[in-house]
TrEMBL record:
Coiled coil: none annotated. InterPro entries: 4Fe4S_Fe-S-bd (IPR017896), 4Fe4S_Fe_S_CS (IPR017900), P-loop_NTPase (IPR027417). Residues 37-66, 67-95 form the 4Fe-4S ferredoxin-type domain. PROSITE patterns: 4FE4S_FER_1 (PS00198), 4FE4S_FER_2 (PS51379). Pfam families: Fer4_10. It comes from bioreactor metagenome. This is 4Fe-4S ferredoxin-type domain-containing protein.
Amino acid sequence: MAFAAQNATYIDCDVEEPNGRLFLKPEITAEEKVEVMIPKADFEKCNACRICVDFCQYNALALANNRLLVFKELCHDCGGCILLCPEKALTEQGRVIGKVEYGISGRIKTKTGILNTGEAVGIPIIKKLSENIQEDNTYIIDSPPGSSCAVMESIKNCGCCILVTEPTLFGIHNLAMVHELVKLFDKPHGVIINKYIEGETVADDYCSQNRIPVLARIPYDDNIGSMNSQGRIAAAEDDKYLAVFKEILQRVQEEVQHEAVAHIER
């Protein structure tokens, strides 16, 4: 999609396993570390009152032998424990959880979020990736799979969501979950049916029943699988697929413009 758009910014929000860079192969121009703030205890001030422990919904704090323990990997950087501590025994300290890489691939700008191995929460990196998004530019945001909090953070600023599914029961189960999510966020959306096989109608049936526009049906093609395994872009090597993605992009842009006008009229 980013290759078809050309003058666009590709943002890879799948921070646990970012693979867009394997295809676009950008030249990295800058790198920025991403930190979260975690609590640090002053044991001379801490009186083991448990207020912070009872407050933390993520079990990042615990008391053992009247000594406060901080499980830094579980901390969600909300700062509530520091605000509530009556003895002012907690302060903040930074901890690097990953980074954002900025790059160029031809006429495409890239932003890639990379979560450090072993980290549990990548949302702060996705928030960093979402900074400085301008309405008059085209952004292709590659969301993580599923319907987790990371997906919610990824689509918050989207003008339109493209849901990719396959014509299988497993694919439709995942599509149904993500469909509920985009409805909750009131986002315009459409579906691409990948690995489409003539006669397999389960995906089309779901879209028809739920009035979801099908933006494209990409046939099952061994050549695409071969290109993917080698980090090659189908739209760059086959004009047939370039035309498909250009048409999808045009439909999405028209939908976004329509929604913008409707919002102004409301």
